[in-house]
Amino acid sequence: MNAGVEAASAAKLTETIEEYLADHPAAALLEDGRVLFDMRSARYSVTEQHGRCLLQLWSEERNLIRTVVEVQQRAACLRLMTRRMGAAKPQALELVPTSDRRTPTAREAARRNYQRLLERVLTRAFIGAKVDGLRSAMDLEHSFGPAYVRGHLLRGTAADAVIGVSEAESGAIADGILTLGILWLDHCRQKGDGRRHFGGLKVIVPAGAWRTTAERMAWLNHAAADFQLYTLDERSEELTVVDFRDTGNLESRLVHAFSAAAAIERCQEGIDRLLALVPAAARERVEVRPSSSTEVGLLLHGLEFARVRQGFAANSFARENELTFGAGANETPLTAENEAPCRDLFERLFLSRHSDGLHTDPLFRMQPERWLEARLRDSITELLPGLRGELLYTQVPALSVGDRGLLDMLTLDRNGRLTVIELKADEDLHLPLQALDYWIRVRALNADRQPAAGNEGGRPLSAFERQGYFPGTEVAALPPRLLLAAPALRIHPANEPVLRYFSPQVDWELIALTEHWRRELKVVFRKRNS
Q1: Given this model, what pLDDT does residue 401 score?
Q2: What does the alpha-carbon distance between residue 17 and residue 39 come to, in Å, rounded to a whole number?
Q3: How far, CA to CA in Å, does 279 sit from each of 269, 275, 285, 361?
Q4: What Rg value do the Cα atoms of the chain yield, rounded?
Q5: pLDDT (tens digit, 9 = 90+) per residue, 499-514?
Q6: 440 CB-near residues (< 8 Å, 6+ apart)
Q7: Fewer CB atoms inside 10 Å of the end CB: C or N, the chain?
Q8: Cα dihedral 138, 171, 206, 219 in deg (nearest 10)
Q9: Distance CA 163, CA 427 (A)
Q10: CA 425, 426, 431, 437 torsion-angle sign
Q11: Taking all residues of the chain, what is their mean pLDDT, rounded to a whole number?
Q12: Where in the chain is the domain with CATH 3.40.1350?
């Protein structure tokens, strides 16, 4: 094979792997059926070098460097034939969509066992009631998946909807149960035969996995349904009621606001070096955004493709800048030796990522929500004139009960009321309750009002004001507003039914945007809680 054909082949291999990882952010890399890297936490680099496709992966546990010589596509997986330096024979690695290694047969058997267990427990716990119609079959039309067992608990003409999830399922699936539970209750009410009234919903989660559901359940409309939460210990078969109205103090804290101008000034030398590698005609398209007082990112339509971090030099108190390039987990330190591939990557990025780019290009498709966020940030006062665009924070760290979350956008309206904005570029069944999580955090932080340090008799300040957010502006003590925005055709049909079960205290608004928002961003329609 001549050099030109080899280079073309290597470029195709690189593109195939990049596309797969862009489409499957929760992928895992396996060797002999064993998970080597979970791509949610690992970092990687896949590049074409000297006519070869070079794959590098690293995490806290291990690192790996292989030359990929062939890619075989198998259903939802990629089989990578790789060569390790010095090895005589190629070795097979496999990229799979998720790290859940149970076979389909094992998953189905575990779910059947849980269904039988749940029927026994419910029959024993609710004497006089009949457990009816427990199932876990897939029902795509109504968004019901096989991970959740759902059914009815009947008592005369009264009935409750029931839904449960096994401890064998992932934490993310357990946290998603309330969305499916609300949809199941709504389905039972809509499709009932009229002889029974479904007055409530019983949600059963594994022991130790109740907190997220409890915090969410507290902010549902309890006049609309009787919501009850239980934990199930699958070994002792003990069902325990959870008082979701008393989940303890919500442990929320906020990272202190920093000066964006000061951060850029500290990192200016590194910023200039990176910008010199960007095609000259494209430099005006680069957005320079600090993410902390010592880190500044270079972004193109929301995609951070390079960054400067300021730290201390080894064995010295002198400060120095660390420069890296690459998006997401594909992050590589910039050195004199790899400036050429860095320049090539930047050139390809700016050729690919623009409003009329190819939808098949992974660089075009990467991080669509951050692209949508960048578009909304630039035109928020025109689209949503009631909001303060000059006091807008994006990707705000919000910490609660040990879990770290990044709130998409936070601002004030013209009356000083906090406004939480959650964005989705694609359909997301769980958008309402995920957005509610942030609303709960922001509400708690705003309600935490104390006098400013050194001014004991002054106006009590919210946690946001004490931490330096919204300087010079009074933040109203009112509960925050909640805005959920997505392209009109990408709003999941289940989102509105779930929103209708929110507490009246949650002032929400669903905003539908134009489908071709990369070219033109407008509001198509808006719906609010009644």
Answers
A1: 42
A2: 13
A3: 18, 8, 10, 19
A4: 26
A5: 999 999 999 999 999 9
A6: 215, 216, 219, 250, 400
A7: C
A8: -90
A9: 23
A10: negative
A11: 89
A12: 104-242, 368-528
Closest CA to 202 of 236, 175, 241, 170: 241
Who contacts 312 (Cβ-Cβ below 8 Å, separation ≥6)?
Answer: 318, 319, 320
Is 104-242 a CATH 3.30.200 domain? Answer: no
Q: Is 481 left (phi over 0), alpha (psi -120 to 50) or beta?
A: beta
Quick: pLDDT tens for 282-322: 999 999 999 889 999 999 999 999 999 987 655 555 678 89
Give whole-number Cα distances, 195 to 152, 192, 509, in Å: 14, 8, 35
Structure-model confidence comparison of residues 363 and 265, the more confident one = 265
Could you read off the pLDDT of 103-134 as tens digits, one per residue? Answer: 778 888 889 999 999 999 999 999 999 999 99
**pLDDT tens, position by position, 310-320:** 876 555 556 78
| Residue 27 tokens, joined | 């992928």
**Cα angle value 278/280/284 (rounded, 5°):** 85
Mean pLDDT value of segment 373-383: 93
Sheet holding 34-38, edge to edge: 34-38, 28-31, 91-96, 77-83, 63-74, 52-58, 43-49
Single-letter code of the amino acid located at 252: S
pLDDT of residue 404: 45
Where do we find the tokens 């966020």?
373
C-beta of residue 153 within 8 angstroms of C-beta of residue 202: yes
Distances (CA, A) of 51 to 8, 93, 348, 499: 8, 21, 17, 53
Give the pairing type, strands 91-96 and 28-31.
antiparallel
What predicted TM-score, i.e. pTM, was given to this entire model? 0.82
Question: Going along 105-257, which residue ranges are E strands?
Answer: 130-135, 148-155, 158-165, 197-206, 226-233, 238-242, 252-254
Per the DSSP assignment, residues forming a β-bridge with 488 are none
Residues 463-477: tens digit of each pLDDT:
999 999 999 999 999
Provide the token pair at 454.
């050194």
**64 beta partners:** 57
Tokens of 46: 């896949």
Average the pLDDT over 381-393 and give the result: 92
Q: Are strands 52-58 and 63-74 parallel, antiparallel or unpaired?
A: antiparallel
CA atoms lying within 13 Å on the CB side of residue 321 = 23
- Element at 49 (helix H, strand E): strand 43-49
Q: What CATH fold (topology level) applies to the domain 368-528?
A: Trna Endonuclease; Chain: A, domain 1 (3.40.1350)
Give dist(CA 504, CA 481) in Å, integer.
12
What is the DSSP annotation of 108-119? HHHHHHHHHHHH
Nearest to 301 by CA among 279, 324, 327, 330: 327
Q: Return d(Cα 295, Cα 267) in angstroms, integer.
A: 7
How many percent of the chain have pLDDT more than 90? 62
